[in-house]
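One record is set out below.
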Amino acid sequence: MANEPVMLITGASSGIGAETARAAARQGYRLVLAARSEDRLAGLQKELGGPERVLTVQCDVQSGEDQKRMVDQAVKAFRRIDVVFANAGRGGEPGGFSSADPDVWKDMIMTNILGVGLTIQHCLPALRDSKGHLLLTGSAAGRVTIPGSMYSATKWAVSAIGYGVREELRGSGIRVTLIEPGMVDTPFFDERPAHALKPEDIANAVMYAVAQPAHVDVNEILVRPTPATE
Protein backbone atom coordinates (compact mmCIF):
# COMPACT_ATOMS: atom_id res chain seq x y z
CA MET A 1 0.00 0.00 0.00
CA ALA A 2 2.93 2.35 0.65
CA ASN A 3 3.59 2.57 -3.09
CA GLU A 4 0.02 3.40 -4.04
CA PRO A 5 -0.29 6.98 -5.29
CA VAL A 6 -1.82 9.73 -3.17
CA MET A 7 -4.20 12.40 -4.45
CA LEU A 8 -5.00 15.53 -2.45
CA ILE A 9 -8.25 17.33 -3.27
CA THR A 10 -9.44 20.66 -1.88
CA GLY A 11 -13.14 21.45 -1.96
CA ALA A 12 -13.65 17.71 -1.63
CA SER A 13 -16.87 17.51 0.35
CA SER A 14 -19.31 17.68 -2.59
CA GLY A 15 -19.69 18.19 -6.32
CA ILE A 16 -16.61 17.89 -8.51
CA GLY A 17 -14.28 17.25 -5.57
CA ALA A 18 -16.33 14.38 -4.16
CA GLU A 19 -16.84 12.72 -7.54
CA THR A 20 -13.14 13.01 -8.32
CA ALA A 21 -12.39 11.35 -4.99
CA ARG A 22 -14.67 8.45 -5.93
CA ALA A 23 -13.09 8.12 -9.38
CA ALA A 24 -9.56 8.23 -7.93
CA ALA A 25 -10.41 5.64 -5.29
CA ARG A 26 -11.60 3.28 -8.03
CA GLN A 27 -8.19 3.72 -9.68
CA GLY A 28 -6.33 2.75 -6.51
CA TYR A 29 -5.42 6.17 -5.14
CA ARG A 30 -5.16 6.91 -1.47
CA LEU A 31 -6.83 10.21 -0.74
CA VAL A 32 -6.40 13.41 1.23
CA LEU A 33 -9.77 15.17 1.24
CA ALA A 34 -9.93 18.76 2.45
CA ALA A 35 -12.90 21.08 2.95
CA ARG A 36 -14.10 23.77 5.33
CA SER A 37 -16.38 21.29 7.06
CA GLU A 38 -14.60 18.08 8.02
CA ASP A 39 -17.94 16.62 9.16
CA ARG A 40 -19.15 16.55 5.55
CA LEU A 41 -16.12 14.45 4.60
CA ALA A 42 -16.84 11.67 7.09
CA GLY A 43 -19.28 9.88 4.83
CA LEU A 44 -16.82 9.94 1.94
CA GLN A 45 -14.07 8.55 4.15
CA LYS A 46 -16.29 5.65 5.17
CA GLU A 47 -17.46 5.06 1.60
CA LEU A 48 -13.97 5.06 0.09
CA GLY A 49 -12.09 2.75 2.44
CA GLY A 50 -11.85 4.30 5.88
CA PRO A 51 -8.95 6.12 7.56
CA GLU A 52 -6.30 3.74 6.23
CA ARG A 53 -7.01 4.95 2.70
CA VAL A 54 -8.66 8.34 3.18
CA LEU A 55 -7.40 11.20 5.33
CA THR A 56 -9.87 14.01 5.93
CA VAL A 57 -8.68 17.49 6.88
CA GLN A 58 -10.60 20.61 7.90
CA CYS A 59 -9.14 23.36 5.75
CA ASP A 60 -10.18 26.88 4.84
CA VAL A 61 -8.08 27.48 1.73
CA GLN A 62 -7.85 31.19 2.58
CA SER A 63 -5.68 30.24 5.56
CA GLY A 64 -2.01 29.53 5.01
CA GLU A 65 -1.87 27.85 8.42
CA ASP A 66 -4.71 25.49 7.47
CA GLN A 67 -3.04 24.64 4.19
CA LYS A 68 0.33 23.98 5.80
CA ARG A 69 -1.36 21.72 8.35
CA MET A 70 -3.19 19.91 5.53
CA VAL A 71 0.07 19.11 3.76
CA ASP A 72 1.88 18.19 6.97
CA GLN A 73 -0.89 15.74 7.90
CA ALA A 74 -0.92 14.26 4.39
CA VAL A 75 2.83 13.64 4.36
CA LYS A 76 2.75 12.25 7.90
CA ALA A 77 -0.08 9.84 7.03
CA PHE A 78 0.98 8.70 3.56
CA ARG A 79 4.63 9.81 3.18
CA ARG A 80 3.96 11.30 -0.25
CA ILE A 81 1.63 13.36 -2.45
CA ASP A 82 1.51 12.46 -6.14
CA VAL A 83 -1.45 14.51 -7.39
CA VAL A 84 -2.86 17.80 -6.10
CA PHE A 85 -6.28 18.94 -7.34
CA ALA A 86 -6.76 22.57 -6.28
CA ASN A 87 -10.51 22.50 -6.70
CA ALA A 88 -11.95 24.67 -3.89
CA GLY A 89 -13.89 27.66 -5.18
CA ARG A 90 -17.08 29.63 -4.82
CA GLY A 91 -19.45 31.79 -6.88
CA GLY A 92 -22.64 33.70 -6.17
CA GLU A 93 -22.62 37.41 -6.97
CA PRO A 94 -26.03 38.86 -7.90
CA GLY A 95 -25.95 42.50 -8.93
CA GLY A 96 -22.94 42.60 -11.21
CA PHE A 97 -20.33 45.34 -10.84
CA SER A 98 -23.10 47.88 -10.25
CA SER A 99 -24.49 46.50 -7.00
CA ALA A 100 -22.89 43.20 -5.93
CA ASP A 101 -22.03 42.81 -2.24
CA PRO A 102 -18.30 43.62 -1.87
CA ASP A 103 -18.03 41.13 1.01
CA VAL A 104 -19.16 38.38 -1.38
CA TRP A 105 -16.53 39.55 -3.85
CA LYS A 106 -13.84 39.50 -1.16
CA ASP A 107 -14.61 35.95 -0.07
CA MET A 108 -14.74 34.81 -3.71
CA ILE A 109 -11.44 36.43 -4.60
CA MET A 110 -9.73 35.12 -1.48
CA THR A 111 -11.01 31.59 -2.11
CA ASN A 112 -10.70 31.36 -5.88
CA ILE A 113 -7.35 33.13 -6.27
CA LEU A 114 -5.46 33.34 -2.98
CA GLY A 115 -6.67 29.87 -1.98
CA VAL A 116 -5.32 28.35 -5.18
CA GLY A 117 -2.00 30.13 -4.75
CA LEU A 118 -1.63 28.90 -1.19
CA THR A 119 -2.45 25.32 -2.18
CA ILE A 120 0.24 25.45 -4.84
CA GLN A 121 2.82 27.00 -2.53
CA HIS A 122 2.33 24.53 0.31
CA CYS A 123 2.04 21.43 -1.91
CA LEU A 124 4.97 22.10 -4.23
CA PRO A 125 7.70 20.60 -2.02
CA ALA A 126 5.85 17.25 -1.93
CA LEU A 127 5.13 17.43 -5.67
CA ARG A 128 8.79 18.14 -6.39
CA ASP A 129 9.71 15.01 -4.44
CA SER A 130 7.22 12.86 -6.37
CA LYS A 131 7.55 14.64 -9.73
CA GLY A 132 3.80 14.73 -9.45
CA HIS A 133 0.82 16.38 -11.08
CA LEU A 134 -0.91 19.67 -10.23
CA LEU A 135 -4.46 20.27 -11.45
CA LEU A 136 -6.45 23.49 -11.04
CA THR A 137 -10.19 23.97 -11.42
CA GLY A 138 -10.54 26.88 -13.77
CA SER A 139 -13.71 27.48 -15.76
CA ALA A 140 -15.09 28.12 -19.19
CA ALA A 141 -15.94 31.47 -17.57
CA GLY A 142 -12.19 32.13 -17.51
CA ARG A 143 -12.07 32.08 -21.30
CA VAL A 144 -14.91 34.44 -22.17
CA THR A 145 -16.25 37.84 -21.17
CA ILE A 146 -19.30 37.63 -18.93
CA PRO A 147 -21.01 40.96 -18.23
CA GLY A 148 -20.71 42.06 -14.62
CA SER A 149 -18.99 38.89 -13.41
CA MET A 150 -16.28 39.06 -10.79
CA TYR A 151 -16.44 35.25 -10.72
CA SER A 152 -15.34 35.20 -14.36
CA ALA A 153 -12.47 37.53 -13.45
CA THR A 154 -11.31 35.16 -10.72
CA LYS A 155 -11.30 32.26 -13.17
CA TRP A 156 -9.31 34.31 -15.69
CA ALA A 157 -6.84 34.66 -12.81
CA VAL A 158 -6.79 30.89 -12.23
CA SER A 159 -5.95 30.41 -15.92
CA ALA A 160 -3.07 32.87 -15.52
CA ILE A 161 -1.89 31.04 -12.39
CA GLY A 162 -1.93 27.77 -14.31
CA TYR A 163 0.13 29.18 -17.16
CA GLY A 164 2.53 30.89 -14.75
CA VAL A 165 3.17 27.93 -12.48
CA ARG A 166 3.70 25.67 -15.48
CA GLU A 167 6.51 27.93 -16.67
CA GLU A 168 7.96 28.17 -13.16
CA LEU A 169 8.05 24.37 -12.97
CA ARG A 170 9.37 23.75 -16.48
CA GLY A 171 12.02 21.03 -16.27
CA SER A 172 10.95 19.86 -12.80
CA GLY A 173 8.99 16.84 -14.02
CA ILE A 174 5.78 18.22 -12.47
CA ARG A 175 2.82 18.32 -14.85
CA VAL A 176 0.21 21.11 -14.67
CA THR A 177 -3.34 20.80 -16.00
CA LEU A 178 -6.12 23.38 -16.07
CA ILE A 179 -9.55 21.73 -15.84
CA GLU A 180 -12.09 24.19 -17.28
CA PRO A 181 -15.72 23.13 -16.88
CA GLY A 182 -18.72 24.80 -18.37
CA MET A 183 -21.89 24.75 -16.28
CA VAL A 184 -21.95 21.78 -13.90
CA ASP A 185 -24.91 20.66 -11.81
CA THR A 186 -23.40 20.99 -8.31
CA PRO A 187 -24.31 22.64 -4.98
CA PHE A 188 -22.35 25.64 -6.37
CA PHE A 189 -25.70 26.85 -7.81
CA ASP A 190 -28.64 27.98 -5.67
CA GLU A 191 -31.01 26.79 -8.42
CA ARG A 192 -30.13 23.60 -10.30
CA PRO A 193 -29.35 24.35 -13.95
CA ALA A 194 -31.63 22.62 -16.44
CA HIS A 195 -28.89 21.83 -18.96
CA ALA A 196 -25.50 21.10 -17.45
CA LEU A 197 -22.66 18.67 -17.03
CA LYS A 198 -22.57 16.24 -14.12
CA PRO A 199 -19.75 16.33 -11.55
CA GLU A 200 -18.61 12.88 -12.68
CA ASP A 201 -18.01 14.29 -16.18
CA ILE A 202 -15.36 16.59 -14.74
CA ALA A 203 -13.95 13.80 -12.57
CA ASN A 204 -13.49 11.79 -15.78
CA ALA A 205 -11.49 14.68 -17.26
CA VAL A 206 -9.25 14.80 -14.20
CA MET A 207 -8.62 11.08 -14.32
CA TYR A 208 -7.86 11.23 -18.05
CA ALA A 209 -5.15 13.83 -17.42
CA VAL A 210 -3.50 11.97 -14.54
CA ALA A 211 -3.61 8.64 -16.40
CA GLN A 212 -1.29 9.83 -19.16
CA PRO A 213 2.33 8.62 -19.20
CA ALA A 214 4.90 10.84 -17.52
CA HIS A 215 6.09 12.36 -20.80
CA VAL A 216 2.57 13.62 -21.66
CA ASP A 217 1.43 16.88 -20.03
CA VAL A 218 -2.22 17.64 -20.77
CA ASN A 219 -2.13 21.42 -20.39
CA GLU A 220 -5.86 22.21 -20.53
CA ILE A 221 -9.18 20.41 -20.71
CA LEU A 222 -12.18 22.58 -21.58
CA VAL A 223 -15.44 20.67 -21.02
CA ARG A 224 -18.84 22.10 -21.96
CA PRO A 225 -22.27 20.47 -22.10
CA THR A 226 -23.48 19.46 -25.53
CA PRO A 227 -25.93 22.12 -26.73
CA ALA A 228 -29.53 21.13 -26.13
CA THR A 229 -31.38 19.71 -29.10
CA GLU A 230 -34.08 21.98 -30.51
